[in-house]
């Protein structure tokens, strides 16, 4: 359901300014705000679903995912950091590198949990 909602709001966000010719900018701005809120809620849903399904994993799979998450996070953090240090860029943003490293390692290790069928009916 969330996937359909994202697709519909994306299409409407692209088409509304074209059809309205930006005559009603307040409406378009409100719709874009709703679109961004929809994306934010979708990200929260992904995070909550992943955490809930992570609790249902056996201990061996859980430990291996956490270890792989840590390895990928360190790798994704070190590669751009060393790249910025070696080539001496002025815009070394540590918060941005940490955020990208966390997102990529989280997605790499836990994204399949969103589509995994659970045996417990009480979970999402």
UniProtKB/TrEMBL annotation:
Keyword annotations of the record: Membrane, Transmembrane, Transmembrane helix
Transmembrane segments: 31-54, 66-87, 93-115
Record bears the keyword Transmembrane: yes
Superkingdom classification of source: Bacteria
Protein name: GtrA-like protein
């Amino acid at each position: 359901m969330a996937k359909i909602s994202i697709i519909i709001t994306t299409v409407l966000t692209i088409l509304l300014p074209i059809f309205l010719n930006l005559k009603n900018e307040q409406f378009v701005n409100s719709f874009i705000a709703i679109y961004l809120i929809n994306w934010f809620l979708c990200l929260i849903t992904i995070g909550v679903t992943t955490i809930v399904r992570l609790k249902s994993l056996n201990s061996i799979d859980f430990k291996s995912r956490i270890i792989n998450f840590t390895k990928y996070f360190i790798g994704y953090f070190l590669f751009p950091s060393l790249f910025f240090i070696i080539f001496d860029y002025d815009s070394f943003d540590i918060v941005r590198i940490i955020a990208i490293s966390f997102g990529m390692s989280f997605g790499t290790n836990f994204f399949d949990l969103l589509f995994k069928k659970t045996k417990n009916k009480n979970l999402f």
